[in-house]
Amino acid sequence: MISYADVLKQEDDRVGELFDVERETLDSGSILVEDPFPRLAQLLETAPVRKGTLAELMGLAAPGRVFIHHMPGLPTYTALSFGAVSRAFIENETFSSHVYHTTGATAAVGHSMIAEVGAAHRSLRAPIQPLFTPEAAEGWWSKKIIDETVETLISTIERKGGADLFVELCARMPVHVVSAGFGLAPEDIIPFRIALTTPRTASAEERTQKRQTVERMLSEVIQARRRKREDDIISKLIDAEMELDDGSSRPFTDQEIIENCKLIVLAGGGTTWRQLGITLFALLENPDQFEALKADRSLLGRAVLEAARWHPTDLLFPRQAAADATLEGAEIPKGAIVHLCLGSANRDPSRWDDPAKFDIMRPVQRSVAFAAGPHSCLGQHVSRQEMVTALNAVMDRLANLRWDPSKPRAKLVGGLFARGPNALPVVFG
Of 213, 237, 342, 416, which one's alpha carbon is 20 to 30 angstroms from that of 231? Predict the structure, then answer.
């Protein structure tokens, strides 16, 4: 029987094709935006909340262009300041996550916790939350999956003298960790990811086939675990119970497990890939800070948080006003879409000095890189543990790590939603 380590040791061209920020952006129908931050800073200077979609305000909107979470025909406002974005995240019953039903995002992951509010959201999230705490990340996730995954990958990389760390480490590590954690078979990890991600140009038939493949693969794991529990997340979800409004409780249905698995595996394999890449990019671009980090590993957690503040993978999250509301002086009518712009909020000069600078020594303050309030990122502690483990391994095992001068210069690219490096070509030793 093939093992998880066996799969990780194999070269797989599908990984590079699947984990490509530029292709991901173009497949969504959007356009590449190399550096959105100067324009975001200008917008924030004018007002904490502006009427208009983020693309319109940035001068990017044009006939035929598609941007994730932009809904033609609905009034839209963009929250730009840290205060406005944080408050909208926290006040989730006013600035509602039901927006994902409006935008059609639930077609990809089903009616999972991402689109729920209040008691309905709590009933779905509460049984899952203990599986993703800091203690679970440092304990179960690390000992069972993360440590072995990183060791296997770094052992392969260090023998080469050079690598594209974005594909060979940043991409392979998180998709493997989250998929193995849920109990998918080693040989199914990449096929599952391929079926889970669908380009905008896919036909209705292709979308149906992909959805059926995902649900079949998860159903097979669920049924196997109902017959015999294993030490994985799906087994734990089978034994978990949702608390209902009347105080009673019930187990998750198979469909509820499937839909929340799709959400967590999709996000866990995507955001950590890009954010680890952004963190390594920032450190390689700031070698003095990289050296300081090597000398003092207590700065690692701070470095991860600073990279997520400085350049979050997703610049934009949507909400929808459930009632007329006022946000930082702006009157938001019921039904309006609100674009929460993490890219400007995390560089709000009223909260951070010299916010455009990547600085692992700056005092730690909460950003909105992992959202806030009821929908704060469920997997953030596992993601951060993965990144800390991977960065430690890079610093321990890849001596004198530096950019590969023979390769084109790496850059951060993407759209307004999903961003990361186009590559991380390095040499070492």
Answer: 213
